[in-house]
Design a protein that fits this description.
1 helix; 5-stranded mixed sheet; about 425 residues; globular; mainly beta
């Protein structure tokens, strides 16, 4: 195993998220970012295991070093994770061979004090992202957000510090890719609250826009098109704002749905709706995002299609497919809705505490709870359980799906789930 020392330059950056432009580069089998190629949690896979257990469909299981709640990403035969060595105060990026589960490389990318954080957070919670050329990660190091790029041999290519970061709950927001731009959310309690764009080639800051309110929030930006141009929607700090990816210009501003957000946005492109969860304040919005609204006073009337106020998740993200919207609250209550109208279809308890976000393929939706149980339901108006599996280990990270495999990170192990006839 190769351990590489970090570059000595100062600098640390912020965060950004995931996106659709990745889909232009990635093959149909890759899972290159938080919640996959589109950021929705949906995979185009044609066949994946529905059940697994100690003796069933576990291709391999291996320990994961250190601590980290970031989700795995998969590019071809590489599974990439981040973690922190708390005793050594180091942050790592590691690559694991998909077939064998062996470590390909393990690179130290930063060293610094472990930040203060919420008990459900870790020093390595932001999921990596790749465009197939580079791997991009973000950490909070010594009060600054540091973005680092590596190649697929584990060599550090560049690192940038975008701004300072202050939060009693630590940092966890994922990066997003749009063409040659990395987009990073630095929503925080400190005065340097911002949203920024970086050049993917060298890490240079292309634009950095300050936020008017300094409130920590961890919802990842979501990549969309607005009036035919790439844009991101970012929720948190009392507002949801759409920004131009190219210039950082504000396209519309909507108050709410919450002062602090964690749950990621999901979009139904064919309906022209984005779904935004504000669990701390009990507000859920479906918004008509594809427009430019210069008048902030009229934004709510023009943008909001429907609302919900019950069972709204704070941490877990919604899941959309084929006209249906699935929501699971942090305490395990599942609800399904007509995604266009907000009509409630199903209401059912599926678990206790839930941290991982839903994923799915075909007409299957996977719900994983914090104790390690995964319930597979059908993507239908009624609640129909297809299968249940239990690893009996705590799970905070969201699973990945790629080329017939499901990759699951528990708090202590990494599993590759594969059909074994």
């Amino acid at each position: 195993m190769k351990i590489q020392k970090p570059l000595q330059s100062v600098a640390f950056i912020s965060l950004v998220i995931l996106n659709h432009s990745i889909a232009l580069v990635a093959s149909a089998d890759d899972w290159p970012a938080w919640r996959g190629k589109s950021g929705s949690g949906y995979s185009g896979e044609q066949s994946l295991p529905l059940t697994w257990g100690p003796e069933t469909n576990v291709h391999w299981k291996r320990p994961v070093p250190g601590v980290g709640y970031s989700s795995p990403i998969v590019w071809k035969d590489n599974i990439v994770l981040t973690y922190a060595d708390v005793a050594g105060q180091t942050r790592h990026v590691m690559a694991i061979d998909r077939e064998s589960g062996n470590t390909l490389w393990d690179t130290i990318v930063a060293t610094g004090p472990i930040e203060r954080m919420h008990h459900d957070n870790s020093p390595a919670s932001a999921t990596p992202i790749t465009d197939g050329s580079g791997i991009y990660v973000v950490f909070c190091i010594d009060g600054h957000l540091k973005v680092i790029s590596l190649d697929f041999a584990g060599k550090t290519l560049w690192e940038t510090t975008v701004g300072s970061f202050e939060s009693a709950h630590g940092f966890s927001t994922a990066l997003v890719l749009s063409g040659n731009r990395l987009l990073l959310s630095g929503l925080q309690d400190g005065s340097d609250a911002f949203i920024a764009s970086l050049n993917v080639k060298d890490g240079s800051v292309l634009w950095k826009i300050p936020r008017e309110k300094a409130i920590r929030s961890f919802s990842s930006p979501y990549l969309v098109e607005i009036q035919g141009s790439p844009a991101i929607i970012l929720s948190g700090a009392d507002q949801t704002i759409a920004y131009s990816c190219e210039t950082g210009k504000t396209l519309w501003t909507l108050d709410g749905p919450a002062s602090k957000t964690v749950s990621s946005i999901v979009v139904a492109e064919e309906l022209g709706l984005a779904y935004i969860s504000g669990g701390r304040d009990g507000q859920f919005y479906a918004i008509r995002y594809d427009q430019i609204v210069p008048d902030r006073e009229s934004a709510a009337d023009r943008l909001i299609a429907w609302k919900q106020t019950k069972g709204i998740p704070y941490v877990t993200s919604p899941f959309y497919h084929d006209g249906l919207l699935h929501i699971v609250s942090d305490d395990g209550i599942y609800r399904s809705y007509n995604a266009e109208t907000g009509e409630l279809y199903a209401n059912k308890r599926v678990g206790t505490k839930i941290d991982a976000s839903m994923i799915g393929w075909g007409d299957k939706v996977y719900i994983t709870d914090a104790k390690g149980k995964t319930t597979v339901i059908r993507n239908s108006a009624k609640y129909e359980v297809l299968a249940e599996s239990d690893l009996k280990e705590p799970i905070i990270a969201s699973p990945a799906m790629s080329n017939g495999d499901i990759v699951i990170r528990t708090t202590s192990h990494l599993y590759l789930i594969r059909e074994t006839n």
